[in-house]
Amino acid sequence: MKAKWFRYVILAFLVVGILLVAGCSDDSETAGNDSGGDSDGESSGEKMNLRVFVPTFSTEPPTDDSPVLKKIEEYTNKDITMEWVPNSNLEDKFNITLSSGDLPHVMYVPSKSPSFISAVEDGAFWEIGPYLEDYPNLSQANDIILNNSSINGKVYGMYRARDLGRNGVIIRKDWLENLGLEEPKTIDEFYNMLKAFTEEDPDGNGQDDTYGMVVSKYEGPWDVMQTWFGVPNKWGEDENGELYPAFMDDNYMEALNFFKKLYDEGLVNEDFAVMDPAQWSEPVVAGEAGVQVNVLDEGHRIQEKIVDANPDNADPITVIKSVETEAGLNNLPTSGYSGMLAVSKTSVKSEEELKQVLDFLDKMNDEEAQILAENGIEGQHYEIVDGKYESKITDDAALKAEVDGFNQMLMYLPEPKSLKAESTPLRELEETLKVENEDIVVANPAESYISEVYSKKGQQLDNIIIDARIKYIVGQIDEAGLEEAVERWKSSGGTEYMEEINQLHQDAQ
């Protein structure tokens, strides 16, 4: 009797299971792709509940009642709970959340910090790299930036894109015109421009009160200009596939000798090694220096300050991306991203759920989603007047509180598609050069490698080389002194660091 009863129960379960599978199949056909884009992973008409952890720069981030959030939920077919974290204590909250074990579905990761790397090693996050090709927007991620954001070549978060080719040269265009000079295209023309800005009274005031280029104690400009001479970005690769640090490259001394020449001839500010980076742009604004190697978009900020002080000087600044040397036309990239959106394994337990989350991330790159997250709802948060975007939230705190912060979920893949205010010729030039720069930037072949040696000794090792470069430029040490610094770098852990990086490089191949 018991055996017959048991067979009936098993049969009943089988029938119910078949009916459920058939029902789910029907649901998936009717639910379709309501929100546009790829619906991979959506197996029913029910909305997935999604917790999203992102920073906020506002004291009053959007609430659950935000009409913008409702529209984003509708577009992505998800029920979203925003977990806003004040940016001022983001790192602390990030680490507390990691240690709690209660991770949201989507978690903003500010950097490849030791705590994040440890969590990845413990299996807390999905490796999403193999899935990206299945999504129309995510599949268009930049390979260099993916590598930069990866951990030993594996992708554990979708990067939030920033301009990879952002570095360039800001020049006083009015000074060029006053001296009858063209924008420099080669390193010799660049040098001649700096010399003319220093010696030939470019502002026409009859005073010896100008110099070529302003540099601060921030070492970025030297790193950028090194690449012009063919120096690698942090690590170079020899003909045998071995990696070596940039300062061991054959072209390194040529770059340093050029920098020393600029310093010796007074073409850069004498106090660069102690100058506060916060005041870095002031000499260009004040008409003391004519050039700054910086991010391109600092150009329009400098121009706006000059024009505010002197409206008659309406177009004083131009920008270029780089200058050519015997090594060709090169430039130093940025990392290309600002944090990542990672998918946790504690909340997202199956591959099917992972695909639903990736579908959400993919849709957040669609034009409609970008506009919602960045600009809000047309007629409510912005207007299009005579074909031009006009925000309504600038002076309305209540409206701003409905929108402000959702752009922290944006990855801008393959490009930004949200609405922008009317541009200027200089801003448009900056954006054009950023795109053109992507063809000449020098990738770091070791960017994704996580070194235990560097995590312990990196700051010390970096400081040895940075200090030696400054001392060489200002004449405190000679080439022999540089060689001594390199030997000190090796004996302080550098040799071990090189061995570890090369082992990681071999493993990655």
Please describe what this structure looks like.
The protein is an alpha/beta fold and 509 residues long. The protein folds into 3 domains: 32-164 and 337-375, D-Maltodextrin-Binding Protein, domain 2, CATH 3.40.190.10; 166-332 and 424-444, Periplasmic binding protein-like II (D-Maltodextrin-Binding Protein, domain 2, 3-Layer(aba) Sandwich); 451-509. The protein has helices spanning 2-31, 67-76, 90-100, 114-121, 143-149, 173-179, 187-199, 220-228, 252-264, 282-285, 298-309, 351-363, 367-375, 397-403, 425-437, 452-473, 479-508; strands spanning 48-56, 78-86, 106-109, 158-161, 167-172, 211-213, 235-237, 243-245, 289-295, 317-320, 337-343, 382-385, 388-391. The strands form 4 sheets. A 5-stranded mixed β-sheet has the order 2-1-3-11-4, with helices on both faces. A 4-stranded mixed β-sheet has the order 6-9-5-10. The chain has a two-stranded antiparallel ribbon with strand order 7-8. Helix 2 (67-76) runs antiparallel to helix 13, helix 8 packs across helix 9 and helix 16 (452-473) packs antiparallel against helix 17. The longest helix has 30 residues, at 2-31.
Tell me the name of the CATH homologous superfamily of the largest domain.
Periplasmic binding protein-like II
Low-confidence spans: 1-44
Average pLDDT figure:
91
**Tally of structural domains:** 3
Structural class: alpha/beta
**Portion in helices:** 40-55%
What is the number of E strands? 13
Ordered list of secondary-structure elements with their pairings:
Layout: H1 2-31, E1 48-56, H2 67-76, E2 78-86, H3 90-100, E3 106-109, H4 114-121, H5 143-149, E4 158-161, E5 167-172, H6 173-179, H7 187-199, E6 211-213, H8 220-228, E7 235-237, E8 243-245, H9 252-264, H10 282-285, E9 289-295, H11 298-309, E10 317-320, E11 337-343, H12 351-363, H13 367-375, E12 382-385, E13 388-391, H14 397-403, H15 425-437, H16 452-473, H17 479-508
Parallel strand pairs: 1-2, 1-3, 6-9
Antiparallel strand pairs: 3-11, 4-11, 5-9, 5-10, 7-8, 12-13
